[in-house]
Amino acid sequence: MTNKIAVIGLGYVGLPLARLFATQFPVVGFDINSKRVAELNAGHDDTLEVSDELLQSALLSANPLDDANARAGLFCSDKLNDIAEANIYIITVPTPVDKNNRPVLTPLIKASETVGKVLKKGDIVIYESTVYPGATEEDCIPVVEEVSGLKYNIDFFAGYSPERINPGDKEHTVEKILKVTSGSDPETGKIVNDLYAAVITAGTHLAPTIKVAEAAKVIENSQRDINIAFVNELAKIFNLMDIDTHAVLEAAGTKWNFLPFKPGLVGGHCIGVDPYYLAQKAQEYGYHPEIILAGRRLNDSMGKYVAEQVVKTMIKKDIAVNGAQVLMLGITFKENCPDVRNTKIVDVIAAMEDYGTKVTVYDPWANPVEVQHEYGLTCSDQLEGTKYDAVILGVAHNEFLDLDLGLNLKENAVVYDVKGILKSAHAQL
Length: 429
Hints:
By secondary structure, this protein is of the alpha/beta class. It is built from 14 helices and 14 strands. Helix 4 crosses helix 5 (135-148) and helix 11 (302-316) crosses helix 12. The model has no long low-confidence stretch (mean pLDDT 94).
């Protein structure tokens, strides 16, 4: 039987996956955002995860899931009927947290309802969205059962293969990252594993259960979060001692088994979110995770800490803080990427504004409309000739490496470098 794939959610994870599968299978990418679908069918991805050339080479003008057109290629749609003929449904929607850091499964539940409306006997539903262990079978599958009227592991089956997309990374693309796979029974596990093995050149790892695969994903980023929290704490300590943290890390890194983590602001849709999913589930079992949540608290405090350090440096240089003009370089959550989801730069901005400063945001990668919608902030993709009392480099975009800051600095101005890349910085994290 030919695999006919529907990918639900065409964001940073779904689109690269759909495009890759389309090299071997007929694929329909489904998204409820009609504007996004129209843009993709026109051959452009504004997340920049898939190049126009690759996208256009994959696109088909007609639905490839129709029997008459069942050939490899990608068709994007916001119409439910266009995914009705699929036999493999892959869900790649976001799993954020709310303002209280509690997991928000609404997109996942809605996507499960969508699939349930078109699911048929023998179909397989695969989840890629990051969740806590048990979410697939305890939260999502019951929704699919209710909407479809079909029975799990009798009429339809499930798999879990956690996404490992690194936004903005053009070296470690989806096919070059080893993929963890799993299934709701051994036979389905093999089918899911073979499906991904057909396109993932880095190989696959078949986990024994869906819960194992879910747990593996959620600890990947929790581990990174804890390690970054450790070096952030070191940065706070060494700053008190007037020791260059980056120089310390460089020296320590000469040992073969030293882990090369750097201090910084931990945002984005993975590292800054996944630990809360694991913590939530642990607490449901009566266990209060100490190290995981301690790491989160420390990393979440870094925006305020950066602002405090900037203000202290300004005061030492006799710069009036209240009413000062401050330039923030970068607002995306990481370098050379337009993704502004869960960016912690906004914490720095909010803290600086609490001190009475006026912050101007410049980021050549961010979409000003998206920044305004998400955070109510004005962001410019052009740097004007205004003179500033302080400049904060928050994101290490390539464009900032050769930036002549002298054109934008008042005499005696402060340059604070969060990322440790500017030679002209007066202070750094």
